[in-house]
Amino acid sequence: MSNTVIVTGAAKGIGASIAREFAKAGYNVCINYNTSKKQAQDLQKELQKLGYSCMIYQADVANRKQVDEMIDEVLKRYKSIDVLVNNAGICEYKLFNDITNLDLQKMLDVSVIGTFNVTQSALKKYMINKKDGSIINISSIWGITGASMEVNYSISKSAIIGMSKALAKELGPSNITVNVVAPGMINTDMNAKFTKEELQEIEDSIPLCRIGNTDEVAGVVKFLASKEARYITGQVISPNGGMVI
Question: For residue 152, is it within any domain?
Fold first, then answer.
């Protein structure tokens, strides 16, 4: 029986590349999306056309009822959850004094509460009893260093790191690893806020002299789910081109 992976926020960007990476490795891939239905359907068609096993699941990760229903559907179809990748998140570029309570709550709902919901549901319904599995949570370098004009984003990504480290200690006796991938500047839609000149300045500040691509992040995620990484847990791996050392 093939292993099964759930990737949240997998319709596009880093999440879609992660889904492709696991599909190529022979996993049953469960593509979660909330509003990006067409992109999720297009990705499913792409992977199925190549002969890979995948399904799409709509769920707002901040809504526990929808999350539980998604986990139940995955288990009904594939009978296992071997890897969970919490990738769903949002980004906002705003001065601190302009951030409203609603802005902060929305950020926390998706990135932090969403990660909590999906992780707890998967653990309760399958992974704890199986006493095996890998959880990889997607954070950001800004969760490590903080970013000007991205305070609420930095808060959410820092919280994911803290959650992951604590959970790694708790789940270690159950043979479940928990790790964090904290990408640097990656070529995704989130960079649309920058001008061409600003992007060039960012590239010039990176030791490898370029912005990363989503496949490079996906490769790190896939490694952390592999048997070669079974003794790695509670760690933060940051593919950032040397931007943060």
Answer: yes
Catalytic residue among 52, 57, 153, 231: 153
78 is catalytic: no
- CA dist 50 → 42, 145, 187 (Å): 13, 40, 25
CATH number for the domain harbouring residue 43: 3.40.50.720
All residues at 6 or more sequence positions from 61 whose CB lies less than 8 Å from its CB, including other chains: 8, 9, 32, 34, 67, 86, 88, 110, 113, 114, 115, 117, 118
In this prediction, residue 190 carries a pLDDT of: 80
The answer on pLDDT for 191 being more than 90 is: no
Residue 1 pLDDT > 80: no
The number of CA neighbours under 13 Å toward the Cβ of 6 is 35
**Is 153 within a domain?**
yes
In this prediction the pTM is 0.97
Residue 184: partners with Cβ closer than 8 Å, 6 or more residues away: 141, 206, 212, 238, 239, 240, 241, 243, 244
Is 43 buried (19+), middle (13-18) or exposed (0-12) by CB count in 10 A?
buried
φ, ψ of residue 143 to 5 degrees: the values are -75, -15
